[in-house]
Amino acid sequence: MRVFPAYRQAGHVTFENYKNKHMKKITAFILFNTDEQFIKSLQKSDLINKIFIVNPESAEITKHNKYEILNIDNVLSSEAIKIYAENMTDEYALFLSEKMNVELRDFSLKRFIDIAEDLNAGMLYSDYQIKKNGDQINHPVIDYQKGSLRDDFDFGTLQFYKSSVFNTAAENINEKLKFAALYLLRLKISQHSKITHIPEYLYSVEANDIKKPKKSSFDYLNDENRQIQIEMEKAVTIHLKDINAYLKPSEYKKIYFSKNNFKYEASVIIPVKNREKTIASAIKSVLLQKTRFKFNIIIVDNHSTDKTTEIVQNLAENDNKIIHIIPERKDLGIGGCWNIGIHHKNCGQFAIQLDSDDIYSDYNTVQKIINGFYEQKCAMLIGTYQLTDFNLNEIPPGVIDHKEWTDENGRNNALRINGIGAPRAFYTPVLRKIKFPNTSYGENYAVSLNISRTYKIGRIYDVLYLYRRWDNNSDSDLDIKKQNEYNMYKDKIRTSELSARQNLLKKNSK
After folding, report:
1. Distance, CA of 114 to CA of 122 (rounded, Å)
2. In this structure, which of 17, 110, 173, 381 has its CB flanked by the most CB atoms within 10 Å?
3. Are strands 350-353 and 394-400 parallel, antiparallel or unpaired?
């Protein structure tokens, strides 16, 4: 018989006392009202010691028989983080971070603890399932990387923390934040501890509780959300400074345009595949451009199987500005097509983007872009566009001016947001040196981050083109597998870029 001498009572061992003393315990924080069944399931668990229901009122604790109420005005603020930390009396903490009905799987809490112990992880999250019409639909999430800096990274509804790690990170948040404290907390945690994805379905949520879209790509443009986005930018900037990856806004390598000899001043590059409905209008919007210099159009036709090739050939026969290229290779993504375009012998000194779905907004777009290069002395320009439907009717949110990219902090904030803006134009010698990755997603983001590491990126706030959204273009809804694939790739790009910036700063400091 195994003996626990510290827990003898009247000559025998009280195992319950031993178990209660030594079993890992969890404090649960439910940040929004949720289903009573979830609370009951937590109350039944031997692993849950305390439950706090967090309500957005005043910061006072009200005790109930089954749980305690934390009345906090703003559940995502830095003040709230401090209150959570003060009430973490157990070794671990579980957070329900969204207003959802959650059902835990058997032994899920034990699984969180075991993995936390095995990996010495500071924060954990897992895959989950969505209950819809009696079915359980798998919703896998992705691994956390050093470059997982998006404030909308999908951790799911439940996050699990080691309390000591949470407390240390909370102590290091010195800024007063209304919205970005949890985001900054996880960035702080990532600096010294593991953030671990458990690739198992440890809980489920109700489909009706999921809001789609969870986050708009244009939140930065919404006046109601702009303050939130500014705070998120502040948080990531703090993190970049902490890890020595912050780039100062004024330290750029200078550009000297006059040293290059190009037959054409500019080339509009259009990679295209199977866009018979839109390619003609895109090309014609370029041919109508009025400029004080020579320009051409380089169309890289990636083996279209519809009438796209025929349409481009017919237009090229009637206008020598059009260069129609059909690559020999059949394994090219959009980035690979761009590489062919910029390395063509007749590519201009500046390479200007136009997607095969879209059209320039007026006759002066190309001239405005080239003027911008010379005025701002930059290696890349980001413009402004207007969202429209297929028939060119404006659709919300209308004009997209990329306020997230600023001279003061754009090159740092670019590591948080999931895109670089559009339309884009590049100084060809720099682009030839860097090159695009041969992908059809994230290729612009990758090359733009690389450019911003060394060179200035300029801005034009006039609407330069009309960005048409329609059923078969790249803005169509993606399934979770494809979303995860794209997000993992962009996180990988950011991970590489972070390391490159850290190495650059380390080299420059010697």
Report:
1. 13
2. 381
3. unpaired
What pTM does this model have?
0.89
| 401 in Cβ contact with 221 (< 8 Å) | yes
Sketch out the chain's domains with CATH numbers.
5-214 (3.90.550.10), 257-476 (3.90.550.10)
Write down the residue that tokens 């699984």 correspond to. 111
Biggest CA pair distance of the chain:
103
Tokens of 120: 């010495």
Other Cβ atoms less than 10 A from the Cβ of 331: the count is 7
pLDDT band at 1 (very low <50, low <70, confident <90, very high): very low
* Distance, CA of 338 to CA of 358 (rounded, Å): 17
Identify which of 376, 380, 352, 347 has the alpha carbon closest to the alpha carbon of residue 365.
Answer: 352
Rounded distance between C-alpha atoms, residue 107 and residue 94, angstroms = 14
For residues 381 and 405, what is the distance between their CA atoms, to the nearest angstrom?
Answer: 11
Query: With contact defined as beta carbons under 8 Å apart, do 109 and 48 qualify?
Result: yes
Task: List the structure tokens of 178.
Answer: 């209304």
Torsion 244-249-251-256 (CA) sign = positive
Between strands 92-96 and 158-162, the pairing is antiparallel
Looking only at the bridges linking them, the beta strands covering 394-400 and 380-388 are: antiparallel
Candidates 377, 445, 439; CA nearest to 416 is 445
The tokens describing 447, both together, are 């090359």
Amino acid identity for residue 345 in this structure: K
Token pair 């109930």: residue: 64
Q: Write a three-state SS string for 116-146.
A: HHHHCEEEEEEEEEEEECCEEEEECCCCCCC
User: Which residue's structure tokens are 């590049």?
Assistant: 426
Give the total residue count for the chain.
510
pLDDT of residue 4: 36
Residue type, 174: N
Spatial distance between the Cα atoms of 277 and 376, rounded to a whole number of angstroms: 36
> Rounded mean pLDDT of the chain?
89
Sign for the pseudo-dihedral over CA of 263, 267, 273, 278: negative
Specify the higher pLDDT residue, 221 or 111: 111
SS3 215: coil
